[in-house]
Amino acid sequence: MNRYFSAENLERVCADFAFLVKKISDYRGELDLRLRDNYFNLYYRGNSLAKVTPVKDGCYDVVIHRKFSREIFRDDPRFTCTDAGSHCRIRVRNRFLRPLFKKKNLDALLRNIKKVNYGEEIVFEQLLITDNVDRDDLILIDRQVTEPGMNSRIDLLALKRTQGNHFSFVVIEVKLGNNRELAGAVGKQLNGYIHHIESHIEEWACSYRETYRQMKLLKILEPQRWDEIEIDRKVEGLVVVSGYSGIARESIRQLQNSYPEIAVRFIKNRI
Questions:
Q1: Which domain holds residue 226?
Q2: I need a surface site. Which of 10, 144, 233, 241 has the fewest CB within 10 A?
């Protein structure tokens, strides 16, 4: 489990992308940057907008789905664009990162993403990230988490503060009230994730301590007071549910009967 940059790449990214981190804040939570294994993903409303990887000679590879990028970058001689299956790969020198990620281009990408249908649960997931960004008792440290040995992806991975700068993992699954998995399958899924993390707790704790430290250096976690944290061995599961309350109530009852150890939080949309 590695969700962070090498020391060399971290130094580059901190220097080259400070402007982008500031720009992300202008979008009021709709844009989201997440660290991966020596690259980062930029998300918009839960969709992966771009994968950005440091490569040699002061360059970066920026990979964007062609249905989002269309012809936005192809006529600019500062960028080398090549097709990579369903994606467009852009090789760009660090001095041209600002022109690449200028507001005009970002807004064009966002308009194209809005034209594509995306799931309600992905939107709900992004709302949870946006509305919890300023907390210091709960940090949504990662999203769409997987590694070898896991059958699927964790929706959201949180760090819950226990005391001081000590935190523990909370595995969060996001479901709409009409999702059939809510009645039981999500409980089995969550317990599988919890067991996997508990079986590899040292690796996960080490990885996310470094993820936190690097996100703090990048100023992505500005509200947090600690430069470094400790992660305890405890792992909890949480299902967050919203909407379709008439269907959701019975599914939640069945889930809690079968998996009483898993917490469920139902968010009502009543006026």
A1: 121-267
A2: 233
